[in-house]
Amino acid sequence: MSFLVVTIPVTLFLAGVLLSLVLAAVRAGDFDDLEAPSARMLADDDRTPEIEGPIQPIPTEPRSPLISTGERG
To answer: Are the C-beta atoms of residues 66 and 73 closer than 8 Å to each other?
Structure first.
């Protein structure tokens, strides 16, 4: 039963901290409008492509002379 002397105050302290964080978020207006950001995403008119510029080809020539000759040093 001695563990209750520690766990109950710690639990009450953590509950108070979490409650204060939620109240701070409510006062800051974080929960005012939950639907507008998702609606803005659907109404986005951005016509620019995701990839800008030409696609670069993968180089086919080897980078090291050891690879091209097949020799090992």
So the answer is: yes
